[in-house]
Amino acid sequence: MPTTSAFPIRTLREHVTELEAALTLCLADPGVRPVHRLRTMTRRIEGQLALLDLLAGVPSHDKLARKARRVLKKLRRAAGTVRDIDVQIDLIKEALPEESSRALQKDADTLSEALREDREGFARKLLRTLSKNQSELSLVLEALLDKLKPSEDLALSSTQLASLAQEWFKNNTVPEPKHKEEADDHLHDIRKMAKLARYIAENAPKTARLPRRVAQSFEDLQQSGGHWHDWMVLADLSAEELGSSSPLTKLFARRSKVALSTYRRHLRPLVRESSS
After folding, report:
1. Is residue 16 left, alpha or beta, with left meaning phi > 0 and alpha meaning psi from -120 to 50?
2. Do 219 and 40 touch, CB atoms closer than 8 A?
3. How far apart are CA 18 and CA 3, in angstroms?
4. Looking at the chain, which residues constitute the CATH 1.20.120 domain(s)?
5. By the 8 A CB rule, do 220 and 228 touch?
């Protein structure tokens, strides 16, 4: 019978292997898919380290985990900038009606071209970051896995894992700020916390229904939050490039407003549950 238990350190080892492969592919070609995979794997390993912090009986590894997080953050940010531009270029295409006005199409072409030029520069920066940090990251992660090897067979039940993911999200989600100007950053932070909580819950095999349901709820929150944030950033970029009076800027602002309402609907039950 297939197990429903999770093995966090084994999963970490698998993630490290996948990250190394993603890094190699991205160095060869920082295209859309390799960059996306690289950023995803850095986040998954960060989620794994967060889970290990919650577990008793794991060998002390704080120093190595801090080093790993430091290098992973550099890679994630560099890849994230490129990935965000890829998403923005796709959103411009998505937002345009089938029969766009000449003014709208012109603005879309102008903004898309500016983003493509930005991507080229940031992709070069990403390659420099990967080349500079690849060896250090490999050594740190190898040392971390060696340190954790005595607990390689550590297992978590479905119930334990689901509880840990929810506990982590609750403990890392701060109350909504009093000042309105801080609200956007707060909502963005919740989205990032939901992503890591999702990755914690996804330690469970697909046969483990409870943690997979928990993971899905966090993924729904993460995606709706990401959808809002992408439209909001794109509206800001469009305003900078084309002006606030541009029909494209106004279109993105409307999309952002609708996406924010959807995000808040997804947010209510999870935040209510986490604060109970």
Report:
1. alpha
2. no
3. 23
4. 1-155
5. no
pTM value?
0.91
114-167 confidence digits (pLDDT tens):
999 999 999 999 999 999 999 999 999 999 999 999 999 999 999 999 999 999
* Per-residue pLDDT at 271 exceeds 90: no
- Which top CATH class is 1-155? mainly alpha
Give the burial class of 39: count Cβ atoms within 10 A of its Cβ; 0-12 exposed, 13-18 middle, 19 or more buried. Answer: buried
Helices (H), 96-182: 102-148, 158-172
Range list of H helices, 149-208: 158-172, 183-201
Q: Which two tokens stand for residue 76?
A: 């994630």
Contact in structure between 85 and 119 (CB atoms under 8 Å): yes
CB 111 within 8 A of CB 236: no
Q: Which one, of 211, 217, 194, 215, lies nearest residue 6 by Cα? A: 211
Contact 165, 200 (CB under 8 A): yes
Q: Could you tell me the CA-to-CA distances from 25 to 19, 94, 127, 272 in Å, in that order? A: 10, 28, 11, 42
Percentage of the chain beyond pLDDT 70 is 96
